[in-house]
Design a protein that fits this description.
heterodimer, A: 0% strand, B: alpha/beta, Rossmann fold, 6-stranded mixed sheet, 4-stranded antiparallel sheet, 22% strand, globular
Chain lengths: 269, 264
């Protein structure tokens, strides 16, 4: 009781995360010194920037006057290829991701399976899309097949990891109740696990569809087909108005997917 | 019908949750398992259907020894043990009907259950059970739309549709209000009597246990401290189970409540 009296009337502060003031201030100051030093090392060639502004202006102005018609055949062809590539890659990628996600969830998979599935995910995540695409273009040649395989591969790393994490954080008791009824493993997954992770799976799938579409535009730059190839050609010919048209279409489609995913996710809650 | 012999459970952390528990439950007997938190009540129940693997000792259900069964044989035996959970443990995003029918998973094949094409007799039984607990009109509602008491009724249906010989009941009333708690306890005990089921009910509420069961087991630090009829729970006994406390008040409230209820 006497101790409480000693505390009454004194201000209270949240204890600092780092207790020793000297260490705390050294870390804070060190961070800012490093930050300033780092910025100072970035070299900017201002005269080059000035010249480049002219080109940038042309590029931006092209957006006010996009040319959908001159290359409409190429654009439509590229766009269809991209959409087919996106959907095919998403479906295949998701189909492969689901079993890998089950294997990569520590609470349902035995350790050896877990390690194998986690390594598959790690490899898929470590290899950036562009690098995979360059490799696959080298193997399968130019065209959408390389793009399709790249996106399927990238989908696995993304979807399996996030789905596995959702499975790991599921409510254990609901699954336990299904197990207690004498259900088989497959039934246990279907009744005890799947309903819990379904909203997340659907949300992630749509999000991945969206990412795959955007990626398909990049992959064309390294020869993996799709709208990216058309976009690349337009840049090479300095046809900024056609490039602008393509970019506008991509933006509209991505926005539409964004809206769609919002609607669907709200409905599956 | 259920016999536990020297059942021991030691967790990886070194905590000994059960210390050589011996227990025999005859056919049709409803018994309450009381004891302080951490006494091993939940572990004991889960060791019976091996949701928790016992470290040593034997569990016999009828003339089958459950400990040491292969996983497919264990699945078959689990069908004979219905389980009712604390916080209901319904699969929230499935419908009431799917939750009840999930009690039949041990009897139907994967594709039937995957396509939700359960045998007509199972569907009929599910409706009969839901009607018995007053929820037949809720069959197609999603489980998370129900109130606590309703959810626990669905949990009871799910356990009973297994056609079990034994009910394992883990804190059925832990998250329910006093009135609903009594209704749920009464329902469980009535259904056990109707169907001649034995039941082990973990319960915190000593007064509630005394109202409904024929036999009480007191567990303390993983060992049986008391085994007898509910009247045998004197303040001295409760002190050995839970530790020092003024027990007269607890026991007296029970009587008052009983009188209140009789007066209604």
């Amino acid at each position: 009781m006497t101790e409480v009296h000693a505390l009454i009337g004194k201000p209270w502060r949240k204890p600092s995360f780092i207790k020793r003031p000297l260490l705390r201030w050294a870390i804070i100051m060190g961070f800012f010194v490093y930050l300033i030093a780092a910025y100072l090392t970035i070299e900017v060639n201002w005269s080059r920037v000035y010249e480049g502004l002219e080109r940038g202006k042309k590029f931006v102005l092209a957006f006010t006057n996009p040319d959908f018609t001159t290359r409409s055949g190429d654009i439509i062809e590229g766009m269809t290829e991209s959409i087919i590539m996106t959907i095919a890659a998403s479906v295949v990628g998701i189909a492969i991701s689901v079993p890998i996600a089950l294997g990569a969830a520590r609470n349902i998979a035995p350790l050896p399976v877990y390690l194998i599935c986690r390594s598959i995910i790690a490899v898929s995540r470590a290899l950036q899309e562009i690098i995979v695409a360059i490799l696959l273009v080298a193997i399968f040649g130019f065209g959408p097949l390389a793009g399709f395989l790249t996106l399927s591969f990238a989908t696995i790393g993304f979807l399996s990891k996030l789905l596995a994490e959702d499975i790991e954080s599921m409510d254990k008791v609901q699954a336990e109740a299904i197990k207690a009824s004498g259900a088989k493993w497959t039934q246990w997954i279907n009744y005890g696990v799947q309903p819990q992770v379904m909203p997340r799976l659907i949300g992630l799938s749509i999000y991945r569809l969206d990412i795959n579409f955007r990626e398909s535009a990049i992959l064309g730059l390294v020869g993996a087909g799709g709208i990216g190839a058309t976009l690349n050609t337009a840049f090479d010919r300095y046809e900024y108005d056609t490039a602008a048209a393509i970019l506008l279409i991509i933006i509209v489609i991505v926005m539409a997917l964004e809206y769609l995913s919002g609607v669907i996710r709200a409905r599956v809650q | 019908m259920l016999r536990l012999e020297k059942l021991v459970k030691t967790y990886k952390t070194g905590d000994q949750a059960l210390k050589a528990v011996d227990l025999a439950v005859p056919e049709g007997q409803v018994l309450a398992l009381i004891g302080p938190s951490g006494a091993g009540k939940s572990t004991l129940i889960r060791c019976i259907n091996r949701l928790v693997e016992p470290t040593s000792g034997k569990v016999n259900l009828g003339d089958v020894e459950l400990t040491g069964l292969s996983s497919s044989n264990l699945r078959r035996e689990r069908r004979r043990m219905g389980m009712i959970f604390q916080e209901y443990a319904l699969v929230e995003r499935l419908s009431v009907m799917e939750n009840v029918l999930s009690g039949r998973l041990g009897y139907v094949g994967f594709w039937r259950s995957f396509l939700r094409r359960f045998p007509q007799s199972d569907v009929d039984e599910a409706f009969r059970l839901l009607d018995r607990v007053g929820l037949a009109h809720m069959a197609d509602k999603r489980a998370d739309e129900l109130s606590g008491g309703q959810r626990q009724r669905v949990g009871i249906c799910r356990a009973l549709i297994q056609n079990p010989a034994l009910l394992l009941v883990d804190e059925p009333t832990a998250s329910l209000d006093p009135k609903t708690s009594r209704q749920i306890m009464r329902l469980i005990c009535e259904l056990c009597k109707e169907r001649g089921l034995a039941a082990i009910i973990n319960i915190h509420d000593v007064a509630l246990a005394q109202m409904f069961v024929q036999r009480v087991i007191g567990l303390r630090f993983g060992a049986v401290e008391f085994d007898g009829p509910p009247e045998g729970l004197t303040p001295e006994v409760l002190t050995t189970i839970y530790g020092e406390e003024d027990w007269e008040a607890t026991i007296e409230t029970v009587d008052n409540e009983e009188i209140d209820e009789a007066a209604e």
